[in-house]
Design a protein that fits this description.
2 strands; mainly alpha
Length: about 425
């Protein structure tokens, strides 16, 4: 039976409810609440720091990412790494700046309180809850938007589901969506490798499952790297992402697919022998919208990959044909994405057609992964120890691969939902 959800705007009722909940659920709720208001930090770009505008965001995002990583370990029953407390902060603590950009600092206050909602002992085995920090988080969040519906939606789910659920289970306010679009644009235009953070946050928006090995690797980035600024830090994160992708490929069986759910024959057999698919429910339609957002993101990244390849000479200077960015391959992926969208727009999509198109996307984008591996290897021969920085100059292709994986995972989840499999 689902616990009765309180009115979270009533501090006393919220405190009583939080005290009765498992610690991982409490932490999941407040850290998701803080992530939902993260887009308000876009307002610090108006502080007037010119080229240091993105620099002040790094400690904030490090703290937010650290908090989320620790939560994922806790909810998955993994040992919680004991690390120095990293509080999200802009590094601009003065009353004048706070007054001019009150909402950005309110988002910072939410993230800071959420990061302190759980403390971990030196052995990493006894996380404890600080109820005052929990309540400070909800207070800050309510200062930015009416969080009643989103908090209640989270409260109705167990913690293990929350770390892999879309960030907005209730409707996202238009203003916050617009703030994220503005922040994303500013970060990407800075040419400092912020794609790794944009992709991380959009993975939280979609509800992509966490990769605990990658999260732990990011936690272990030394302080000396973080102190060198966004370009160096973001390049290191991109390198870790690329290494993790290669590790997964090495351990995957040859020609492995994400799941039998994405094999057309499996779907056809299920349709012939199992119950009919169920369409039109609120969760099913929400999952469709999330998938369509992913297909749109993937189109943009494929176009960006083509642009990166052209600028870096991957498609010029007469490279071997196998290393040239193929318009045919990109076109195949784009066409398959269009067909997925066309089916999802129908009241009752053709599931076999969706899966066939997903298989085409997967096959086409495997080419990107092979191309990037060759690209990195060729640069490693020339640059030696500096080769790790190549991901700073060609982040788009690596994110194409990650985004494609997120799309296939979301399609699999949707198929399970409609087939009851």
């Amino acid at each position: 039976m689902v616990d009765r959800v309180p009115d979270f705007s009533d501090v006393e009722a919220a405190e009583r409810w939080f005290r009765e909940q498992p610690r991982e659920k409490v932490v999941a709720i407040v850290r998701r609440a803080a992530l939902r208001v993260l887009p308000f930090i876009e307002e610090v770009f108006f502080v007037g720091l010119r080229d240091r505008q993105t620099m002040i965001l790094m400690p904030y995002l490090r703290g937010v990412g650290c908090s989320w990583s620790l939560l994922c370990h806790l909810c998955h029953g993994q040992e919680v790494p004991h690390i120095r407390t990293l509080n999200p902060a802009f590094g601009l603590h003065n009353s004048a700046a706070a007054a001019r950009h009150a909402r950005a600092y309110e988002a910072e206050r939410a993230a800071d309180a959420a990061s302190k909602a759980m403390t971990v002992d030196a052995a990493g085995v006894s996380p404890t809850i600080d109820i005052n920090s929990v309540l400070r988080t909800t207070d800050a969040v309510f200062g930015l938007h009416d969080a009643t519906a989103s908090l209640a939606a989270d409260a109705a789910r167990p913690a293990i589901e929350l770390v892999s659920a879309p960030l907005w289970l209730a409707a996202r306010p238009d203003e916050i969506a617009a703030k994220w679009a503005a922040l994303k644009s500013r970060l990407l235009s800075a040419n400092e490798g912020w794609e790794v953070w944009v992709d991380w946050y959009e993975a939280r928006l979609r509800g992509a499952p966490p990769d605990l090995a990658l999260e732990r690797a990011k936690l272990e980035i030394p302080d000396v790297v973080w102190m060198q600024g966004p370009k160096i830090v973001n390049a290191e994160i991109a390198r870790l992402i690329a290494e993790r992708r290669k590790e997964l490929e090495v351990h995957a069986p040859p020609n492995a697919r994400p799941s039998l759910q994405l094999v057309p024959e499996f779907v056809a057999e299920h349709l012939a022998s199992g119950p009919p698919p169920e369409f039109g429910g609120a969760q099913e339609l929400e999952q469709r919208r999330a998938i369509k957002a992913l297909t749109e993101d993937l189109r943009a990244l494929i176009r960006e990959e083509a642009s990166f390849a052209e600028r870096l000479g991957m498609g010029g200077n007469d490279p071997p044909e196998g290393e040239r960015l193929s318009e045919e391959v990109a076109g195949e992926a784009m066409e398959a994405l269009d067909q997925i969208d066309a089916e999802l727009d129908k009241r009752e999509p053709n599931l076999v057609a969706v899966v066939e198109s997903a298989s085409r996307v997967e096959a086409a984008l495997r080419w990107f992964g092979r191309k990037l591996d060759k690209f990195a290897e060729s640069y490693s021969e020339e640059l030696g120890k500096q080769a790790a920085r190549i991901t700073a100059y060609a982040p788009a292709g690596y994110i194409v691969v990650e985004k494609a994986g997120a799309l296939l995972t979301s399609l699999e989840q949707w198929l399970r939902m409609v087939l009851g499999a």
